[in-house]
Amino acid sequence: MSNLPEAFVDRMKGLLGPEYPQFIGCFNGTPHQGLRVNTLKIVIEDFLSLAPFELKPVPWAEGGFYYGDEDRPGKHPYYYAGLYYIQEPSAMAPAELLGVRPGHKVLDLCAAPGGKSFQIAARLKGEGFLLSNEIDGSRVIVLGENLERLGVRNVAITQETPGRLAAVFKNYFDRILVDAPCSGEGMFRKRPDMCSVWSYTLPDRMSVRQKSILKHAAEMLAPGGRMVYSTCTFSPEENEGVVDWFLKEHPDFSLVDDVRFTWFDRGVPEWVGGSPELAKAYRLWPHKIKGEGHFMALLEKRADGGANSLPLFHKRRGISKLPVEYEFFMKEYMNEFVEGHFYVHKDQLYWIPPSLPDLSGLKVLRPGLRLGTIKKGRFIPGHALAMSSGKESVAQTIEFSSDSKEVMRYLEGFTLTGFDGKGWVLVTVDGYSLGWGKLADGMLKNYYPKGLRRVLT
Ligand code: SAM
Annotated catalytic sites, by residue? Predict the structure, then answer.
């Protein structure tokens, strides 16, 4: 790779010494590509027998696989059925380190496009909730689309600054992921275009932002809770330097050594003249593992006192009676009633995760699962309901096989002909939900969302 910034190369030479030739040599290789199976929708063994890809396990991530150079998983209908998420293999490590368990209250503070939020949701197994936050207005839309396709129910999405969230959620979350914005040096091999936005002063400037984000995250963690700080960059200023600063400013936090992660190198305290504790952090080097450059550290807050409890969303803002249009749809078209707490905003009906706190005053993209729209006395089911429902929970389905012309035409947005029946139907690919259609007069009207329609050839 010839376009690596000179100042970056010089600094890496200085840091790595005799290891440098090995490091720089790997920039001539191709980056490794990975996907993570969506265990909310399919068991890993079933996916392995179904998927037409050359898959090899990523050792540090359950359900993570490298795929072959010839594979094009982003163009396969299973991608649109949300059976997997395409994710760089090293990027699978931080959410694993976070140690999420079912029932946890989790915050993903810098979440878009959503790979790690999806990993967290898979670990929650539908119990507890995830607050997935992204500050950027266009990136938060992509985050929403990804989590919808993957069929995650117990997630609320906000577009907020860390400071405004911290004002609401003091000492609250069991787990927080801070996958911080960074100078992106670890991605130079995969995304050479990132070299052009890098400058010698960028790591220092990014570290100021990272410290501010981490400070607010610390306020939101419950006593005894854990958070992961991660970046995809090599610069010590943004990695050991930020964690060293954080530990000095927050004596109620300590670094946790998770011995499962034997594949990775450790943090290097000497690079920042920092505490020897920094050796409990992890460095993922592209010349030592099959993945790009990353850094991560697991931090625990001392267990003094209890966690803060907040009023629940559904108690404050839930509706006590379901709209009749929705009840009619459920009786007519669903075999399983979506139970729980509901909320209406304008013409949109949402299912609310039971343990979700009130989000009043925050900019909320969605407070839970968007069930659908109530319009002119009718209920129009939402894409999120289709993607989070298995075929057994819907009364009528039309099944296409993954290599059929029909599945391609459905994803492109065409109306299809030659079908009997009437009313709402779940369209599936090899039995896995793709979206809604509506049958009438021998035709299948296409309800695949307009913004998601694709030509997959
Ligand atoms: N965790 C994501 C994933 O796995 O898909 C990737 C996150 S990316 C490394 C960092 C994110 O932080 C970006 O989406 C960026 O918009 C967001 N960000 C930038 N400045 C921020 C700030 N001041 N506070 C919070 N998030 C910020």
Answer: 232
Q: Provide the residue count of the chain.
A: 457
Return the residue matching tokens 């163009």.
75
Can you give the C-alpha Rg of the chain in angstroms?
23
Name the closest-CA residue to atom 26, ligand 1: 110
| Structure confidence at residue 79 (pLDDT) | 98
User: Which pLDDT does position 307 carry in this prediction?
Assistant: 81
Which residue puts its alpha carbon closest to atom 10 of ligand 1? 181
Question: Could you report the per-residue pLDDT of 379-437, keeping only the tens digit for each?
Answer: 999 999 999 999 999 999 999 999 999 999 999 999 999 999 999 999 999 999 999 99
Structure tokens, 373: 């729209």
User: What does the DSSP 8-state code read for residue 92?
Assistant: G
Q: Which of 67, 47, 49 is nearest to 57 (CA)?
A: 67
The finding on whether 111 has its CB within 6 A of some atom of ligand 1 is yes
Q: Is 94 touching ligand 1 by the criterion CB < 6 Å?
A: no
CA distances in angstroms from 331 to 143, 251, 266, 352, listed in the order given: 32, 56, 56, 20
Decide whether any atom of ligand 1 lies within 6 Å of the 114 Cβ. yes
The residue written with tokens 């995969």 in the block is: 190
Q: What does the pLDDT read at residue 381? A: 98
CA distances from 355 to 165, 314, 315 (A): 17, 9, 10
Structure tokens at 18: 């005799």
The one-letter amino acid code at 118 reads F
| Widest distance between CA atoms in the chain | 74
**Which numbered atom of ligand 1 lies nearest the CA of 113?**
5
Q: Is 242 in the pocket of ligand 1 (CB under 6 A)?
A: no
DSSP-based helix, strand, coil % in the chain, nearest 5 = 35, 25, 40
What stretches in the chain show pLDDT beneath 50? none
Ligand 1 centroid from CA 111, angstroms: 6
Give the pLDDT confidence of 330-357 residue by residue, as tens digits. 999 999 877 899 999 999 999 999 999 9
